[in-house]
Write a sequence for this structure.
């Protein structure tokens, strides 16, 4: 009896193995991005990775299907493109050759491949891509760059820009497009729309700026909603070409996608409001005289919920006259924090001065938990990538951040803009 059961198990296992394809497809990207919400062209390129346990296996053909919905994503119903079986080993930057696409389009795609022995893979898991804003006409007629009146001086506020909007009952998706001159973080109903930092990617402001698109569908609820765009100047400094004094500035638009199409729910204009945050930036951001950030613990908010925001004094923004330039979707991954480092040594070098040795040079943020600091007292943070023969030779005070205590609560200094 035992021998019979063992034989039966072996036969069944063999049948299952023979039913599986020896080749598979994963790692789908469009324009080298994973499921991009907004690319900068209407003729996308697709890439994928092929896996096989068979020695000498190679790709001999592929088939791509593209559709306007997941329900139509098959050979018979793909309404944008069905490449059919295409001979060849291509798997990088395969050009889309389907129906003409336009700004704000969104599509789904998948692929299967044949190997050099005629084995065909299962269809890959579906992927998606969207077409971003490609021209000024894609923006709502009222969409404008906005900023804070009179934001010029030795230190400049990193303001909160706010707008409330009413959700639409038939909404399928909400996409928020942010075209920023400087750096920004965005929140919907108190929740960050992304874990990205230092967005957008740096560009030559007089020639091109970047548009970052966020899917905020899960953050929007019925009724009234809050958008906060927290802005900082970053490299948008007046010594750079084509920079308009008084920044930072931002242009943004929230689109609602329904079965009927795409409509703009709100866009930055003179109806938006601003309030000061606990952050300011100072210094010219020039080589060897950078400046830094100032965090005032007396102004820190516990959160960005509507009831908290309502306690602030909100003022009217200004509409900025920004020179004409090309604004296109950002075609690279967003910056993110990928590792946390801790000091390997601490050296006391004065009555109230310490050097924290991080053990390596790196590009990153500073985050320091602060005790209760006397109200109005300033703690200064200096940075250096090396010291010479002794700790006293900490040469650089050109890059300086400041933390101002509130006299009541432990706090935290963290870099942001």
């Amino acid at each position: 009896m035992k021998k019979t059961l063992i034989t039966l198990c072996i036969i069944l296992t063999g049948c299952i193995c023979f039913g599986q394809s020896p080749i598979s497809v994963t790692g789908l990207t469009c324009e080298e991005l994973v499921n991009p919400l907004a690319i900068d062209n209407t003729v996308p390129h697709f890439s994928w990775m092929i896996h096989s346990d068979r020695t000498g296996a190679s790709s001999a053909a592929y088939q791509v299907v593209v559709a306007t919905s997941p329900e139509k994503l098959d050979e018979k119903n793909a309404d944008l493109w069905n490449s059919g079986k295409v001979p060849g080993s291509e798997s990088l930057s395969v050009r889309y050759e389907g129906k003409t696409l336009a700004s704000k389009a969104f599509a789904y795609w998948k692929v299967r491949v044949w190997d050099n022995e005629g084995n065909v893979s299962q269809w890959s898991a579906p992927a998606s891509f969207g077409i971003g804003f490609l021209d000024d006409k894609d923006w709502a007629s009222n969409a404008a760059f906005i900023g804070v009146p009179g934001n010029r001086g030795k230190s400049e506020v990193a303001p909160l820009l706010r707008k409330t909007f009413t959700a639409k009952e038939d909404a399928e998706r909400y996409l928020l497009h942010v075209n920023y001159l400087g750096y920004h973080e965005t929140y919907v109903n108190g929740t960050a729309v992304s874990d990205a930092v230092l967005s957008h990617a740096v560009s030559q402001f007089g020639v091109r700026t970047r548009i970052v698109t966020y899917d905020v569908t899960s953050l929007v609820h019925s009724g009234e909603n809050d958008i906060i765009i927290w802005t900082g100047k970053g490299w948008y400094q007046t010594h750079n070409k084509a920079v308009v004094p008084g920044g930072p500035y931002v242009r943004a638009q929230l689109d609602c996608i329904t079965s009927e199409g795409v409509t703009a729910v709100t866009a930055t204009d003179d109806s938006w409001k601003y309030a000061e945050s606990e952050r300011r930036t100072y210094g010219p951001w020039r080589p060897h005289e950078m400046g830094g950030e100032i965090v005032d613990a007396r102004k820190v908010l516990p959160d960005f919920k509507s009831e908290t925001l309502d306690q602030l004094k909100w003022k009217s923004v200004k509409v900025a006259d920004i020179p004409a330039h090309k604004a296109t979707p950002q075609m690279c991954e967003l910056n993110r924090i990928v590792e946390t480092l801790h000091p390997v040594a601490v050296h006391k070098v004065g009555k109230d001065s310490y050097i924290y040795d991080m053990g390596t040079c790196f590009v990153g943020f500073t985050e320091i938990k602060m005790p209760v600091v006397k109200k109005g007292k300033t703690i200064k943070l200096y940075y250096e990538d090396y010291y010479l023969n002794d700790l006293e030779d900490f040469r650089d005070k050109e890059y300086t951040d400041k933390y101002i205590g509130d006299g009541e609560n432990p706090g935290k200094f963290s870099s942001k803009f």
Q: What stands out?
A: Helices lie at 2-19, 306-309. The two ends are 73 Å apart (CA to CA). The longest strand covers residues 106-115.
